[in-house]
Amino acid sequence: MKLLVTGGAGYIGSVVATQLVEAGHAVTVLDDLSTGHADAVPAGASFVEGSIAEPGDLTGFHAVLHFAARSLVGESVAHPGRYWANNLGGTLALLDAMRGSGVGRIVFSSTAAVYGEPEHIPIRETDPTRPDNPYGASKVAVDTALSTFAELYGLAAVSLRYFNVAGAYGAARERHHPETHLIPNLFKVAQGERDSISLFGTDYPTPDGTCVRDYVHVADLARAHLLALDACIPGRHLIYNLGNGTGFSNQEVIDVCREVTGHPIPVVTAPRRDGDTAVLVASSEKIQRDLGWKPEHTTLRSIITDAWTAVR
Ligand SMILES: NC(=O)c1ccc[n+]([C@@H]2O[C@H](COP(=O)([O-])OP(=O)(O)OC[C@H]3O[C@@H](n4cnc5c(N)ncnc54)[C@H](O)[C@@H]3O)[C@@H](O)[C@H]2O)c1
Ligand SMILES: O=c1ccn([C@@H]2O[C@H](COP(=O)(O)OP(=O)(O)O[C@H]3O[C@H](CO)[C@H](O)[C@H](O)[C@H]3O)[C@@H](O)[C@H]2O)c(=O)[nH]1
After folding, report:
1. Ligand 1 in contact with 86 (CB < 6 A)?
2. Which residues are marked as active site?
3. Spatial distance between the Cα atoms of 171 and 163, rounded to a whole number of angstroms
4. Pocket residues for ligand 2 (CB within 6 Å)?
5. Single pTM value for the model
6. Residues forming CATH 3.40.50.720 domain(s) in the chain
7. Spelled out in words, what is the top-level CATH class assigned to the domain 2-165+216-242?
8. What is known about its subunit structure (predicted)?
């Protein structure tokens, strides 16, 4: 297929673009390089530097895989307008261009942040969406728009709600500036770029007092996009959670990073970070049942080892 990958110069988009090229698809990456890197676009894909807000004529593409977004929770609270303009406004421009060019299929990067504080664990797709920050709200708004476009215009849409994405695929790795995620920040200490890591909150109602997250390996996550592409049904908007189904505490992540890197990684206990939820763990039963997806890298050690190998 001829595929457009928005945000394909970013962490997750570049891994999916790589797998799509490997599967024999003709891939074009559209990215404005606001947080991405031109050298992350895989060899074998074409690159167009530009914004989803002005996607141009998309005639000839069979489908769009849409990763382009701003995705920092803290920034979204400080500058909500950026999130509405880029994540919602940009996506609406992209959907209009798709419609005008006869492109009827989209796979969209949604997030666990759409759920807000969960009522129960594991979180299912049928649970209420009550985002507690503008980033999550912008993703809920896009999910709503996709449902409407499916119903009114026959769009075939799949939203994948990622939990905590980690790991690397070959050399394709996480490179955010600033970096807010836990694992890459732990590596910065191990590489001597920082003296210590701040551990945000040790008084959560969890077994060791630190937050619990569901880490999914980026290679497994990427594979789900290829399955989703084939599962698209005109007139339907399908929604799937993507996680391992197992929670690991921040303290466990720190311990495994110490083992894998061989560095003591000093920790400084810090207050809770605004907007953090104690426990986020996905039920991925639906995508396992409907699309036959199954994560292969389920241990924290394998996820962290792959990420560490790629940054060294
Ligand atoms: N990393 C995670 O754990 C995680 C979790 C849940 C959801 N997501 C979602 O997955 C997607 C990819 O996340 P990531 O971690 O790879 O982020 P990233 O910042 O590495 O990648 C996003 C890419 O989109 C590009 N971009 C942003 N706005 C654009 C625009 N208007 N036009 C064109 N390109 C634009 C950026 O330059 C960047 O290359 C995002 O939609 C994010 O919300 C990520
Ligand atoms: O230096 C750090 C960085 C993070 N943490 C903690 O580590 C845990 C994980 O934090 P990350 O920033 O790595 O990931 P989040 O769970 O906050 O974010 C993920 O889940 C969000 C939904 O809540 C969004 O979907 C987001 O894109 C996705 O990366 C949190 O308890 C956080 O407080 C620290 O203690 N110190």
Report:
1. yes
2. 135
3. 22
4. 71, 111-113, 164, 180-182, 185, 197-200, 211, 213, 250, 273, 276, 280
5. 0.97
6. 2-165+216-242
7. alpha beta
8. Homodimer.
Query: Is the separation of the CB atoms in 263 and 189 below 8 Å?
Result: yes
Residue 131: CB within 6 Å of ligand 1? Answer: no
Q: Give the number of whichever ligand sits closest to the CA of residue 194.
A: 2
Nearest CA to ligand 2 atom 7: 182
What ipTM was assigned to the predicted interfaces of this complex?
A: 0.97
User: 195 exposed, middle or buried (CB, 10 Å; 0-12, 13-18, 19+)?
Assistant: exposed
4, 14, 29, 34, best to mutate for ligand 1 pocket (most atoms within 8 Å of CB)? 34
Please check the confidence at residue 161 and state whether its pLDDT lies above 90.
yes
Given a cut of 90, is residue 274 above it in pLDDT? no
Q: How many other CB atoms are found less than 10 A from the CB of residue 42?
A: 25
SS3 137: helix
265 to 23, 31, 189: CA distances (angstroms): 39, 35, 6
246 CA → ligand 2 middle, Å: 16
CATH code for the structural domain at 168-213+245-311: 3.90.25.10
Residue 248 alpha carbon to ligand 1 centre in Å = 24
Residues 6+ apart with CB under 8 A from 285: 124, 245
Helix (H, G, I), strand (E, B) or coil at 221: helix
CA dist., res. 11 & res. 5, Å (int):
12
